[in-house]
Design a protein that fits this description.
The chain is an alpha/beta fold. It is built from 34 helices and 24 strands. The strands form 5 sheets. Strands 4-3-5-2-6-7-1-8 form an 8-stranded mixed sheet, sandwiched between helices.
Length: 921
C-alpha cells in the first residue's frame, strides 16, 4: 500500500444492508405481534428451513429472492460478482425437490457446469444430481440436473417431457448479449412451458428493470431484485514503477490521490533551478511483471490474478518471473503442490508432455505462479484452479475468460492494460468489462477488503481508471436473431403465423420497440433543424435543395463505389490466384493501364496460403500476392513455358517476356469487359446536376457551402428513417427471410417441415444448412470414420483469422476427403446464392484449418504429431475435438438407421480418447 495511506479504519464503516422490518422486541404491541407472526411464518417456511442450515446470515437481497421463489414467481437477481447469487439458484433446486418437481441448473460453459454439479452433489447427494453438457451425461434423470444452456434448449426443441419440471436456473444470464451464443438464453425463456419458474442470475447491469420487465411480459411474473452492494468492499489502486498508490485521496470525496497524480505526471519531479537535473525528464522505472509481483507481495496483496489480454502474454509473464529468484511458496506448500501435480502429469501421455511444456508448468506451480487461458489443456487449467482455490498458487496470469463465471476469487486483481485486441482492432475496456474483471477481487469470508490495481505502464492516466471505476453502466443488449434450426423446430410444432408472434415477443424486439420511440423523437428534432436551414437556401435560378441533393448523391456514390471496388478487387484477386496454373497469362488492370505477366510457378505454403510467382513483360521474376493487386485481375490466355530450373535463367525469362509482348501486340490476350453500371449511375447523376438550373447560378458555391449542413442533416434523417423501418417488426421480418431460404432449399413446404427439415432440426451450429444438405445429397457417404471426423471439423472449426488460406482445399488428405470437401464447398455456394437472393446474412465459410490435425488424431497419432505445424494450442485442440464429437452425435441422431450414423458414432470413439476424453467428473 502507499506508505502514507490514511484511510480511516478505526471502525469498520461499511454499511450493511438491513431489512426494514420491525424486530420481535421493538415497536408498539401491535407491531411486535405482527413481527412475531412474520418471524414464525418465515421460520416454518421453506426459506426458513433452508436458511437455518446455512453457515452465514443471508443478505437482504438474497432473502427477497428466496421469498419470491417460494411464492412460485420467476425472479431476476442482478448483483456483483461474489455477492452470493448462487445460493438463490441452489434454493430454487431445494424448493423443486421439496415439492416433488425437477430442477435444471444451466450455465454458459461446460467448466462452470462441472463446478456447479460438484457443488450441488455436496448439497443434495450424488444420487439426486445429474450432469448433461453435450459430451458428458451423468444421471440425466435425476431430480436436479446441471447442464449447459444449449442442452436445455435442445431438450425443448426435441419435445422432451417437461411436465415435472418446476424450476430452471439461468446462471450468468447476462451472457445473452453474446453475439454467437446469446440467442439460446432467449429461446429458453420464451419456449419453456408456462408452469416452469425461471431464476435468472446476472451480473450488475444498468437495464435490469428493462430485462425484468420483458421476462415478466413473457413469463407472466418476474420479481426484479438488484443489489449493487459488494459483500467485500473494493478499493482501487494504480502501480507506478514499484510503488502502489491509492487511486483516490483519503478524504472520501472521490478526489484523485495527489501523490498518484504527481507520480504519473510525465514532467516528473525535477530538481530546483540550481540542480543539474533541472528541466531534464525523470526516467521513471517502468513496471515489470517481476517487480509488480514483488510490490504486491510486500503490500500483502496476494493471492492475485493479473489479467493480460493475450495467451502469449500470460505464458511470457510466467517465464519472466521464473527467470528471477521469486518464490511465493514455502517448502511444505511446494511439496504439497508437487504431489498433486505429479498425479495430474501421470494422466498425460509421456510423448505429449514435451509439447505441453509440463516441466516448466510444474516449476512455476511449485513456486506459486501459473498461467490460465483457453489454450491450455483442460486438465492443466483445472489443476491451476484447484491449487489457486487452496491458496497454494499465489499469482495467476490469466486472460479475461477467467472472469466469466469460474469461481476463482482472489484478494487482488491486477489489470495490466486498459486496451485489448478484439480480433480486428485495439479497443478500450468498457466500464462493464472493467467491473467484471475487478469484481474478482475480495474473497467473501476470507478478506475484509478487495483490491483492484491498474498498471501505469508509462501511459495510463489516473483519470482513465477513475472514469471506469466510477461508472456502472453495463447495459444488457439482446443478440437474438432467428436461425435456420430455430425456425424448423418452431414450425414443427406451430404455424408460421403463430411462430412469428412468438418471435416478436423476444427481448430483441422488446428493445427495438423501445428504441423506435427514441429514434422518432430524434428524427423530429433533425427535421426541424433541416427545415430551419432550408429557409436560408433560396435562389432565383432554381431549387437549391434539389441541386444540393444531387451533388451529395454524387459524392456518396463515389465514396461507396471506391469501397466496393476495393473489396471486390481483393476477393477477385484471391479467387483468380487460387485457380491459376503455370503458363497462364494474367492481366493486371489499374485505371487505363494494363500490365501482362505469365505465371511461372505456384506453390502452397504449410499454412495453405497460395504463393504465385510471375514473369513480367520486362522479364523480371516477381512474387504476386492478392494484396499486390490494386485494380482488376484476370486470366486472359495461356502459353507453354518450361518447368524446373529453366525459369531461373535470364535468357529463358527474356524469351518468354518477348513472346508475351508479341502476343499482346497481336491482340492474342483480349481484356475482359469491365462493369460499367456504377460509372453509368454516377454519369447520369452528373448530367442531371449540370442540367439543373441552379448549376448556372453565379453563387452556386456559396449555396453549396451554406447547404453542407443541410445535406448532412438530410443523410442523418434518411439513416434514422431506415433504422426505424428496420426495427419496426425487425425480428418478424428476419423470420420471413429465413423461411424463404428454407423453402427454396427444400426444408419447408409452406408451413410444413419436410423430411430434410426434420433432419435439420437435430443439427445445431452456424453451418447447419450445409451439414443437412450434405447429408441429404450423400456427399460424405464414401468417407471412413477418420475422414468423416476430419470433414466435420471443417464445419465446426473457426480459426477467427482473416487469412483466407483456411478456405482453400486441405493439404495432405486423400482423394475421397478432397472430393467431399469440394462437394461441400459447392453446397455452401448454393446456400450463399439463395441467402443473397432472400436478404439473409451468409453462412460462414468452411474452415480447413483443423482437418489435417483431426485426421491425424483420428488415426491414433499423439497430440504432438496432430498439432505439429499448426497454430492450434493444446487446449483449443481439445475444445474443438469435443465440438466435433458433439456434431458427429447430431449427425448420427439425424440419420439414425443409416450406415453413416454408425460411422459417425465410430468417429466419435476414434477422437474421444486420451486427453480429449479426460474430465474431472
Amino acid at each position: 500500500m502507499s506508505p502514507k495511506r490514511r484511510r480511516h479504519r478505526a471502525t469498520d464503516k461499511r454499511v450493511e444492508r438491513t431489512e426494514e422490518r420491525t424486530s420481535v422486541g421493538e415497536g408498539s404491541a401491535a407491531q411486535r405481534y405482527a413481527a412475531f407472526q412474520e418471524h414464525a411464518r418465515a421460520a416454518s417456511s421453506l426459506r426458513g428451513r433452508w436458511v437455518a442450515g446455512l453457515s452465514f446470515t443471508p443478505d437482504p437481497f438474497q432473502l427477497d429472492a428466496l421469498d419470491a421463489i417460494e411464492a412460485g414467481n420467476s425472479v431476476l437477481v442482478a448483483a456483483p460478482t461474489g455477492a452470493g447469487k448462487t445460493i438463490v439458484g441452489q434454493f430454487g433446486a431445494y424448493v423443486a425437490l421439496q415439492r416433488g418437481m425437477r430442477a435444471f441448473y444451466t450455465t454458459p460453459i461446460k467448466a462452470l457446469s462441472n463446478q456447479k454439479y460438484l457443488e450441488l452433489c455436496d448439497l443434495y447427494g450424488a444420487d439426486n444430481v445429474g450432469l448433461a453438457t453435450g459430451d458428458t451425461s451423468i444421471n440425466s434423470k435425476a431430480p436436479v440436473v446441471v447442464m449447459t444452456t444449449e442442452v436445455c434448449r435442445n431438450m425443448i426443441y426435441a419435445g422432451a417431457s417437461l411436465d415435472d419440471l418446476g424450476v430452471v436456473v439461468l446462471d450468468e444470464v447476462h451472457y445473452l448479449a453474446d453475439k454467437m451464443r446469446g440467442p439460446v438464453w432467449e429461446e429458453v425463456i420464451i419456449h419453456l412451458p408456462a408452469h416452469v419458474s425461471i431464476i435468472a442470475l446476472s451480473a450488475t447491469v444498468s437495464n435490469a428493470e428493462e430485462f425484468g420487465a420483458w421476462i415478466r411480459e413473457v413469463r407472466s411474473s418476474c420479481e426484479i431484485i438488484v443489489s449493487e452492494q459488494r459483500p467485500v468492499p473494493l478499493y482501487q489502486h494504480m502501480i507506478v514503477g514499484e510503488d502502489i498508490f491509492d487511486l483516490y485521496a483519503p478524504t472520501g470525496k472521490r478526489k484523485l490521490n495527489p501523490e498518484l497524480v504527481a507520480a504519473t505526471n510525465d514532467s516528473g519531479m525535477r530538481g530546483g533551478r540550481g540542480s543539474r537535473s533541472w528541466n531534464r525528464p525523470v526516467r521513471v522505472r517502468r513496471e515489470s511483471r517481476p517487480s509488480t509481483l514483488i510490490s504486491l507481495d510486500r503490500a500483502h496483496l496476494l493471492p492475485a490474478i493479473t489479467f493480460i489480454f493475450s495467451r502469449a502474454g500470460c505464458e511470457d509473464a510466467v517465464r519472466q518471473v521464473l527467470l528471477t529468484r521469486i518464490t511465493l511458496t514455502t517448502r511444505s506448500e511446494a511439496a504439497e503442490i508437487e504431489r498433486y501435480v505429479d498425479e495430474v502429469i501421470a494422466l498425460i501421455a509421456p510423448e505429449d508432455a514435451v509439447v505441453l511444456g509440463v516441466d516448466a508448468w510444474k516449476r512455476g506451480l511449485m513456486r506459486g505462479i501459473a498461467a490460465h487461458h483457453a489454450g491450455m489443456l483442460p486438465l492443466m487449467k483445472e489443476a491451476v484452479e484447484h491449487l489457486f482455490s487452496q491458496g497454494l498458487v499465489k499469482m495467476v496470469y490469466a486472460t479475461e475468460t477467467l472472469a466469466l463465471g469460474i469461481n476463482m476469487p482472489a484478494r487482488t486483481v491486477v489489470i495490466e492494460s486498459l486496451t485489448k485486441w478484439n480480433g480486428s482492432a485495439h479497443v478500450s475496456l468498457s466500464a462493464g468489462e472493467f467491473t467484471q474483471l475487478s469484481g474478482r477481487a475480495g474473497r467473501r469470508g476470507i478478506d475484509t477488503e478487495g483490491h483492484a490495481v491498474v498498471s501505469h505502464r508509462g501511459g495510463v492516466a489516473p483519470e482513465e481508471v477513475a472514469a471506469l471505476a466510477s461508472k456502472r453502466t453495463y447495459p444488457l443488449i439482446s443478440a437474438f436473431t432467428p436461425t435456420y434450426n430455430m425456425v424448423v423446430n418452431l414450425l414443427a410444432r406451430s404455424t408460421r403465423t403463430q411462430t412469428r408472434k412468438v418471435l416478436e415477443s423476444s427481448f430483441a424486439q422488446f428493445q427495438a420497440d423501445s428504441a423506435v420511440v427514441q429514434l422518432a423523437t430524434r428524427l423530429t428534432e433533425l427535421e426541424a433543424r433541416q427545415h430551419a436551414i432550408a429557409d436560408d437556401l433560396t435562389c432565383s435560378a432554381g431549387d437549391v435543395g434539389e441541386y444540393l441533393t444531387l451533388r451529395d448523391r454524387i459524392s456518396q456514390a463515389e465514396k461507396s463505389g471506391a469501397r466496393a471496388r476495393k473489396r471486390e478487387t481483393r476477393d477477385e484477386s484471391r479467387r483468380v490466384l487460387a485457380g491459376v496454373r503455370p503458363g497462364d497469362v494474367l492481366a493486371l488492370i489499374r485505371g487505363r493501364k494494363t500490365r501482362l505477366c505469365v505465371v511461372g510457378a505456384k506453390a502452397t505454403s504449410a499454412s495453405g496460403r497460395v504463393e504465385v510467382s510471375v514473369i513480367a513483360e520486362d522479364a523480371t521474376w516477381r512474387a504476386l500476392a492478392p494484396e499486390d493487386v490494386r485494380g482488376g485481375i484476370a486470366v486472359v490466355g495461356h502459353m507453354s513455358i518450361p518447368g524446373g530450373s529453366a525459369l531461373r535463367r535470364t535468357k529463358e525469362r527474356t524469351r518468354i517476356a518477348g513472346e508475351l509482348r508479341s502476343g499482346a501486340a497481336k491482340g492474342c490476350y483480349p481484356l475482359p469487359a469491365q462493369a460499367s453500371g456504377e460509372a453509368d449511375t454516377i454519369g447520369e447523376l452528373r448530367a442531371a446536376m449540370r442540367a439543373h438550373p441552379a448549376h448556372r447560378c453565379p453563387h452556386r458555391e456559396e449555396h453549396a457551402r451554406a447547404g453542407a449542413q443541410w445535406a448532412r442533416l438530410g443523410r442523418e434523417i434518411d439513416l434514422l428513417r431506415r433504422s426505424i423501418d428496420s426495427q419496426t417488426g425487425s425480428v418478424a421480418a428476419h423470420f420471413d427471410r429465413v423461411c424463404a431460404v428454407l423453402e427454396r432449399l427444400g426444408f419447408l413446404d409452406g408451413d410444413r417441415v419436410t423430411a430434410s427439415g426434420e433432419r435439420l432440426r437435430r443439427i445445431f451450429g452456424e453451418r447447419d444448412l450445409v451439414i443437412a444438405m450434405s447429408l441429404n445429397e450423400g456427399a460424405w457417404n464414401d468417407l471412413d470414420e477418420a475422414e468423416l471426423a476430419s470433414m466435420v471439423s471443417a464445419l465446426v472449426y473457426d480459426s477467427r483469422s482473416d487469412d483466407d488460406a483456411n478456405e482453400l482445399a486441405p493439404t495432405g488428405v486423400g482423394i475421397r476427403l478432397r472430393t467431399a470437401w469440394e462437394e461441400s464447398l459447392g453446397t455452401l455456394a448454393r446456400v450463399h446464392r439463395v441467402e443473397k437472393q432472400c436478404g439473409c446474412d451468409p453462412t460462414p465459410s468452411l474452415d480447413a484449418g483443423l482437418m489435417s490435425a483431426t485426421l491425424a488424431w483420428a488415426h491414433g497419432s499423439t497430440l504432438a504429431t496432430a498439432i505439429d505445424g499448426t497454430d492450434i494450442q493444446a487446449g483449443d485442440f481439445v475444445r474443438w475435438m469435443r465440438q466435433v464429437m458433439d456434431c458427429l452425435g447430431q449427425i448420427a441422431s439425424s440419420v439414425p438407421t443409416s450406415d453413416l450414423a454408425r460411422r459417425a458414432e465410430a468417429a466419435k470413439d476414434r477422437i474421444g480418447r486420451g486427453i480429449v476424453a479426460w474430465s474431472t467428473i
